[in-house]
Amino acid sequence: MKVFVVGANGQIGKHLINLLKDSKEHTVRAMVRKKEQADAFEKVGVETRLADLEGSVDEIVEAAKGCEAIVFTAGSGGHTGADKTLLIDLDGAAKTIEAAQKIGIKRFVMVSAIHAHRREKWSSIKHYMVAKHHADKILEQSGLTYTIIRPGGLLNEPGTGKVSIAEDLERASIPREDVAQTIVTALPMENTFNRSFDLVSGEEVISDALNRI
């Protein structure tokens, strides 16, 4: 499967690109905003396209043509205001979903946030949770073959390869590397199609945890 990664220059995105680049089952194309980011990926043999989530849907369409799956792991980042969160995490996701529909890419994996589906658990950064919640809803209603992964607090520690996956989990943390590995493992797994789940560190091997959802 040729996988188009939106948010390739982010911290999860970089882990994901490396895993897909080294995979025997998949190939990868990175979407980035800046030429210097594209140059850095091209130097290590990763195909790239320049496109901006604040640009047009057609810009994303052109960048994604020829791919068979999309992973959306873009985010405005914690240093930006609510306006950027809405433009990237919500409208950027919506545009990417629309682009997938336009060119017939059916497989779509969304990186969301733990408890995004449970308004009663939103205690802080509510604008971020609103953006994630509604981006997920748009994907669920899109007709695409989706998987929505809602990771807990993100860590830069090395991955353990062991996770806990369920519809509802208590808030906990997880290395970004394990989130990326969960995405790659879930991509072809039919029992993850049209499913959404929370994801934190746990005691179960990633493939086993995904098999049980």
From TrEMBL:
Classification via Gene3D superfamilies: NAD(P)-binding Rossmann-like Domain
InterPro entries: NAD(P)-bd_dom (IPR016040), NAD(P)-bd_dom_sf (IPR036291)
Start and end residues of each NAD(P)-binding domain: 7-187
Pfam family, one: NAD_binding_10
PANTHER family: FLAVIN REDUCTASE-RELATED (PTHR15020), UPF0659 PROTEIN YMR090W (PTHR15020:SF50)
Protein name: SDR family oxidoreductase
Lineage: Bacteria, Bacillati, Bacillota, Bacilli, Bacillales
